[in-house]
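Bumping with the actual sequence this time:
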Amino acid sequence: MATIAIIGAGNVGSQVARVAVRTGHDVVLANSRGGEGLDALIDELGPRARAAGSVADATERADVVVVAVPIHSYEGLPSKAFDGRIVIDTGNYYPSWNGDIAELDDESTTTAEILQRALPGASVVKALNNLNAAELTTTGSPAGTENRRALAMAGDDTNAKRVVQELLDSFGFDVVDVGPLSEGWRFQRDLPAYGIRHTAAEMRSALARALRYRDLPDA
């Protein structure tokens, strides 16, 4: 069982917290308001959860850190607090929400690579972004279940990916490793691996069919 720090307690962060506690992990939640507004969620989650007064407090003893804040907030994270940590990037780029980000518009990088740049001392893994947040608590199943749902993952650090794969397996999902962070675009919004329930075999096929946005038929 792991201690999971969750930075951001919105729709994604709160659902990660729920599935984590349900599957026996401890969670520490931090938000931009020093923990203010988290009381109801902490009460719901029970004794395995606590609120942190700061991001540094949340990450201090965490085995894995889940970043669930808008992409435009990545540069404002306290970088040193993440040194030596395994960090999951859950972000998806929606210009209408994030504002235009030129290097994502021209597809020269990915959200996880931006987070890795902002947190150079961490090992970033892209995961938990290609399903609806509510489905984290409703579509998982035990290992070996027929037609078990699969999620995609990308990262540059082999050990970090192993840890994340074990965590997602405990949440109830098979995991398909796409390769390095630079391949994380393959399960971005509007692509075949995004938002659709796939088995591991189906996920591999969907990832292989992915096209850059500029190459999509209606681009």
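The tokens above came from a reply further down the thread. Residues 158-171 form the longest helix (14 residues).
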